[in-house]
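Continued from yesterday's entry.
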Amino acid sequence: PPPVYLPLAPRMKETSGWQQVFSSPRLDWAIERVALNAKVLGGALGDHDKMVAAASSSEIILWALRADGNGSEIGVFHLGVPVEALFFVGNQLIATSHTGKIGVWNAVTKHWQIQDVVPINSYDAAGTFLLLGCNNGSIYYVDVQKFPLRMKDNDLLVTELYRDPTEDAVTALSVYLT
């Protein structure tokens, strides 16, 4: 039989140590990326909900985890290209690929948005900002908390923050906002 893949979410209690709080249904594909959001304060899923996402190739499954240990599938999303990074910025799930695609799941609107950008070499998150270092020497940012969409085409608003005059690729980002 094929192997079984189950994302598990643990919880640490001082009195009893680590405890399993969630196990996904059986998945027939290997999990390549996992993201866990430990606490979503004031999010659309409630103050105490947690989320876990798993990705394989271009497919992403997102679950909401409740305090009672139950979980429910929020949705299955497709990036269209292999997912190379999967993480949360606040309560927004982000998937990126070096090919220049980003996917953002907005917890408030429950909307999955895919955006094409320049091929991505690096990324970082600071506060609610997602910053992308690209191979054309540009650094782009998206305020994922506001989830801004352009009026003319309903695309995610990706703003160029900096462009290197020699167009050298931005291969690393590290951002700290005060």
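--- second protein ---
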Amino acid sequence: MAAQFRSYVWDPALIVAQMVLLQAGYYSSLGLWLAVLGTLGRTGPSLHQVFSDEILGFSTPPGRLSMMAFILNALTCALGLLYFIRRGKQCLDFTVTVHFFHLLGCWIYNSHFPSTLTWWLVHIVCTALMAAIGEYLCMRIELREIPLNSAPKSNV
């Protein structure tokens, strides 16, 4: 069988390590954004802001700041996809996995399935942003020109 360009080798340890790294990066950057934006609203980051489905909303300042933090976190995690995943066709898979585990975390933390419309809208938008921007960035790297002449030029 002939070798394929960019052949994919099944490596479960690498996939699990990438998922753990991306999940840790997701919560680290979300905590950082909540802390930075919390200084504007004079609130500190808490688990309630990360996992509660009732805090997100347009009616209260902490709700608006939390929504901004989730949106900025999606942009930050798109960079994480670029640096840790590096494959455009895997960006959607890892993005959905991160948000699925976040959904499970919210379900466990609240002892009920998230039911507010705002929570679902924010996380659907964040999933779409993270996947689209991460895939765009990865595709830009994948589509760079490959230099064919690596030998130095000589004046002959």
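The radius of gyration is 20 Å. The mean pLDDT is 87. Will compare against the first tomorrow.
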